[in-house]
Amino acid sequence: MVSIQAHIINRYLAKTMKPLPLAQMEPEKIREVFDSAKTFPLPKDVFTYPVAAPVKGEWHCPPAVRPEDDTPRTVLYFHGGGYVFGSPKTHRPMTFALARGLNVPVFSLDYRLAPEHPCPAAVDDAEAAFEYLLSCGKRAGDIVVGGDSAGGGLTLALIQRLRDKGRDLPGRVFLFSPWTDLTASGDSIDANEPTDFMFMAASVRDGAPRYGGILSLQNSEVSPLFGSFADLPPMLVFASSSECLFDDSVRMVDKARKAGVEVEFIEKPGLVHVWPLFTPVMPEANAALRRTLAFIRAD
User: pLDDT of 148-206, one tens digit each?
Assistant: First the structure.
C-alpha cells in the first residue's frame, strides 16, 4: 500500500503528464512545459554557484561549503528528461537535498539536449564534467555519480566510457529508474503501460530516436544496457515495478551482478517513475533519499 501522498501524485501525473504526446511535441514546447512547472519548496540554506565554462552547470552547496573545498565526497548529478528536456533548475529539489543531507558540494550538469545535439553529445559533456571535477582537485574515488531516467542512462554510459579508456572511476553510482535500453525491448514497456502513471509506451518507444540520431539504438553509448558491466563501481538502483522502464533496471542489475558488480536494487510497486525525486512531499521518496545518502557516505 502506497502513502496517501504517493496516491495523490500518481493520480495527478496520470491525468496531466501521461496523456502528453511527448514524442510528437516540439522540443521547445516540451521544455517550456517542464521548465515552467512549479517545483517543491527548496531549502533556504543551499546556495547555487553557476558555471559557464569549461562545462555548463550549477554547484549546489550547503552553508560553509564551497565548490573547491576538500570534502569526503563530491556528487556529480545528471538530470532526466528523455535527453530532450530538463535542467539543473528542474532537478534542484533532489540536488539540494543531496547537498544538504551530505554536507558536500553537488555539481548538476547542464548537458546538451537532443534532438539538436544527439548522442554522443551528452556523453561527451558528462565526460567533460568528470574531468572538470578532477581539475578542481576532486579525487576520482571520492566522486559519486548519479542520475534519474535519462540521467541514469547517461551515468552508466559515462562510467563505461571511462572504464574503456582505462581512467580512474568514480567511487559509487546511484540510479533512479534509469533509461538503459532505448530499443524498448523490455517486456515492461507494454506490459506496464496500464500501471505507469507518467508515460505511454509510445512516448518511450517513439522518443528514443531523437537522442540516438544517426547511431544505432543498440549502441552502448545510446543504450548502456548493451555495454559491458565488468569492473564498474558499486551501484544503488531504484525502480518501480509499476513503470514502463522497470525491465531497464531489472536486466541492467542482472548483467551487473553477473559481471561481479556490487548492486543494491530497491524495487517498489505502485509508485511513479523516478519517485525519489518527490522529496520532501512523499514518504517513499524521503525513505529513498535516506538510503541514497547512506550509500553515498559508505566507505
Answer: 999 999 999 999 999 999 999 999 999 999 999 999 999 999 999 999 999 999 999 99
The C-alpha atoms of residue 247 and residue 244 are separated, in whole angstroms, by 8
Q: Is 243 a catalytic residue?
A: yes
The mean per-residue pLDDT over the stretch 217-237 comes to 98
CATH number belonging to domain 4-297: 3.40.50.1820
Q: Which residue among the candidates 240, 243, 249, 284 is catalytic per the annotation? A: 243
Active site residue 273: yes
Structural domain boundaries in the chain: 4-297
91 flagged as catalytic: no
